[in-house]
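In this supplementary section we document a worked example of the pipeline. Step one takes a protein sequence of length 214 as its only input; no multiple sequence alignment statistics are reported here. Step two produces a three-dimensional model, which step three serialises into structure tokens for compact storage. The input and output of this example are shown verbatim.
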Amino acid sequence: MLSGIKAVIFDMDGTLIDSMGIWKEIDHDFLSKREIPVPKTIQKEIEGKSFTETAEYFKERFELSESVEEIIAEWIKMCKAHYKERVLLKPGAAKLVKYLHQMGFKIGMGTSSQRELVETVLEQYGLTSYFDSVRTSCEVGRGKPYPDIFLKVAEDLEIEPEKCLVFEDTLAGIQAAKSAGMRVIAVYDDYSVPFQEEILAIADGFIEDFEEIA
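The serialised model returned by step three reads:
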């Protein structure tokens, strides 16, 4: 798995942390507050989008009066408590990050989440110092499945894309990593099960959790 690899890049939500269910709740609560029915396909429609892209999508699709900035601020307020009280690391995640650091690999994160939330998670679990680069999709313009986020992290790490290994849970994220020319290992998450066949077809490997390799 690590043969020829010099850097390892992690996605956050659904990969390092078990948080996708919380985002489903937030989408439901946000729309229900405005008496807007929650479309059954909403998770698929926003998968991989950056925070900004998702807010823009919500504003346009649901004809919201709030600005994109106000929507983002409300989401952050809604989920910060959840992240501190309910979100857990995936099994073996911290052990693997620390092992990779000890072995001299550069470690990065490429996430569609918002930087404030990323910092909350990394600080809570004492992992901040292990990451040499953390980038959010809002910082690179286009979210997943475009490769921008992973290419930017590789640039920060000064490692060629083909020498990077990515851990991802979503189909959009895996497509982004492959488009960047990187090796990618799919990580199981309940919310990616409907796309499992497509994920397995393009990923270079698959794990149920990090304890398989940590």
